[in-house]
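thread: overnight batch results

M.L. [08:02]
morning all. the overnight job finished for the chain we discussed friday. pasting input first so we're all looking at the same thing
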Amino acid sequence: MNENPAPEPFRVAALYRFCRLERFEELRAPLAAFCCGHGIKGTLLLAHEGINGTVAGSETAVAELVAYLDAQPELAGIDVKYSQAAEMPFHRMKVRLKREIVTMGVEGIDPLESVGTYVMPSEWNELISDPDTIVIDTRNDYEVALGTFKGAVDPRTATFREFPEWVDGHRGELENRKIAMFCTGGIRCEKATAFVKSLGFDEVFHLKGGILKYLEEVPADRSLWEGECFVFDERVSVTHGLEEGEAELCRACRHPLTPAERASPKFSPGISCDYCHDSRTDADRARYAERQRQVELAARRGREHIGS
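M.L. [08:03]
and the structure it wrote out:
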């Protein structure tokens, strides 16, 4: 008897490009139509400074999208990192117009004018193992909580807008040091390094392709990465080889949770976790419980519940 073949995994593409994209508003409708017409889901951000986003679809559809973007003169040479997902990791397709494709909120910071020195994943360990190097994780606190590089500084920022203030308050610690920064896919560090260089620091470096490229290329037995890497889709996290991790989201507060955190008595699927239990009311939890009941009911019927 013939067995049904295993379904093909979805291809996930994290992409960005800084450029002078004056016609970004005009690109929104045709880009959305292209993605929807090819069964692609995810989020793409368009701004004067370029494009940023993560999408998923069949291997053929994603390849055609990248070719479509690369054919736009301003976007030629777009930076793309690929991974896989067993199930579609997005609920819908969104193309949004923004002031910035990664929001720092500091006027005049332009990665096209000045940016840190790129360091390839194969050379990253040597740089961050140098005692003269200070290693800074530029991601948000909830991302860092899942994993980071050994010895990295966590600025404990809730949003990237807080990063410039953190740098300003720690300038003394950065003096006469090599400054190595990293983020998920590389885009945040384009602005982070540009900002730090604007303050007069010269030896500023960032990981080319971000954590995703490092986890893809550097074997686990030579890795200085500890934990899992948070990703902004339903996979929640990835680990070495870009395999899907074990983290799950708290559906009440959207904080990523490790298996150990899900063992907490304050964790209830879809209702609460250690991070939000004490800040929610009984009415909140009752509402979340009803939503979770609807999610589970939809799953038993073989349907997708958008609130899941």
